[in-house]
Specification:
The protein is α/β, with parallel strands linked by helices. The chain has seven helices and nine strands; from the N terminus they run ββαβαβαβααβααβββ. Strands 5-4-3-6-7-9-8 form a seven-stranded mixed sheet, sandwiched between helices. Strands 1-2 form a two-stranded antiparallel ribbon.
Amino acid sequence: MARKRPTTRTQPVPATTLRIIGGRLRGSRLTYNGDPATRPMKERVREATFNLVGPAVKDKHAVDLFAGTGALGLEALSRGAAHSTFIERHRPTAKTLRENIVALGMEDRSHIVTSDTFFWAGGLPEVLRAEIASGSNVHAGEPPWLVFCSPPYALYHEQTDEMLALIETLLKHAPTESLVVVEADSAFDFAKLPEASTWDVRAYHPAVIGIWPRGK
């Protein structure tokens, strides 16, 4: 009697979770499907980053570029940011991001832009001003930004000129008292950044974090 060949089944990628580390949403879970193309900032690095930012997050307009799960923008909301704009071009990932926003009850303080970050940044500052004006809980005027630029590390090496131009655009248009946070890997030379001497650079292997402050 012939032996039956065992049935092979493709195992789905298991869903996993991240969590909000601090603030009023501390401990809340964020859905992440485990796709390696979406690389959330490691929790220990996110915690260190927000420790460096400290109370300066309060009342800022957070901008989460290459947003993925939205962990950075949602962490900012949890810690007192007035509003968050999330830029994510991958529609299935943006759908998961929206689910995370809804699960945390942050719909009225969040705006998702399903667009390529480089293309979106070409419209600064007009696009952000329009989003700030439409935010129901955002105070009058133009609040300072808290920008998170945490893309796949490969972009710093494969699209170096585009990444540096993106960061330069952010620095050029950022309102007074804004902060720009950049995450790259240790292979990227932070000395290439615009206004390189003004960045506070910290290593959390394999990640490196740079924070740039817009003065008064």
